[in-house]
Amino acid sequence: MAVLITLPHSFPLQPVNGNRTRWHNVGQRRCTVVSQQQEVCTEFNRIKINKSVLKIDEACSESELWATSLLRVRSFYDFKSTFGIQDHKKYLAEREFEALKERVAGTKEGEKVSCINATLPLSQTRSFPEELCSSCKFSHDGEKRVVVGTLDLNQCLSLPNEITGMKPKGLGADFARAYLSNVCVADECQRNGLASLLIEKSKLVAQDWGISDLYVHVAVDNEPAKNLYLKCGFVYESEEPAWQARFLDRPRRLLLWMGLPNNYNW
Question: What's a GO cellular component annotated to this UniProt protein (predicted)?
Fold first, then answer.
């Protein structure tokens, strides 16, 4: 399944349906580019991935963040064959790249963000579309790899324009609460369990940060995403009021919660 992110309103793009989770819809994503929509994808040739060479880890270089930004633009937007679309794709990727660098750098007080990626060696992607391999590749330790899935882990009290989690309460909530966002798997690589692996890795990173309560937002009509999150251990906590969804011009959200083991005593 593929995941989706936030989409722009002001360009001739066909938004996909709901929260930046393009998973055929998995979760939600924050971005600088505007509205939030998700879709259910259907028509891609699925590629069986060799998981022995798959790497799930935190992004550690600007070149990897750039490849990630290109995958997100590729996954979260449905582009039409329009004059100048390549320039527009580059513009969107540059905006996401700058925003992602800023988030990961931790320049905003009270927030900590990690970009977690699923990557494959370029040598193992011969059956992949050339466009995916050329745009989403990066070099690490002398090896060329391709980003095929990604998400953000956000340690903060709340995400902009989203339902706020209720746990934990009291002192230390800003340190012990986190949200997943920008969940995204390349369409061709769906149904390989990559989203589940990304979520499992995010849980380990969150525990290392001292997170006790992990959240994710999902559109109410996004059944594949809901099923994924429930399978991974999330449970229902609350939902967005209908008036708020109408005001923000998007599908209504559910807020799902998961408790994590936490040895920290805030």
Answer: chloroplast
